């Protein structure tokens, strides 16, 4: 049992999935059946190997969570293999809902169809999908739960990994850094298979975690497909 003077430091890593095979450049969102490309599989292997390197150096990584979508399950698989963990599926870390899911979206295509126009009126919410604040709330709750579970399993200094998606991870980062929810998607620092780490000094006390960001798969980014809603 902890005493009042003890702290419960925990780290939660938010890993984005790897590149998805999507030659038609569809906004695939929550659609089933979208698998990692060959490059995407190499990306997540590099990130898993980075976690294994940290574990071999003493990191106590004890808990793994992933979105239930195919691409995040496939991205969690090499972590399961190398660290001996079993991924727990959590709907709260799923991709954001998006009206344009299943479409090949270009500016001309959007303007050509009046049915799309009402979904373009309010980028601050945004009007085309799940509100930013709702995404932030569910991600923060999932992160807190993952942190508590890691502490229960591994004690002080334990670490958890959540494999999620570009926009939900960015919303979680925005909650830490106090940034504006509306933003330019091209400026999100959540590259494929990247690791956004939240370092909590004490998960049972108020306080803003320290944030670090790494890209173990950066060598593979040239020429890959990067789309919002991915």
Automatic annotation (TrEMBL):
InterPro entries: His_Pase_superF_clade-1, His_PPase_superfam, PGM_Phosphatase. Gene3D superfamilies: Phosphoglycerate mutase-like. PANTHER family: BROAD-SPECIFICITY PHOSPHATASE YOR283W-RELATED, PHOSPHOGLYCERATE MUTASE. This is Histidine phosphatase family protein. It comes from Rothia endophytica.
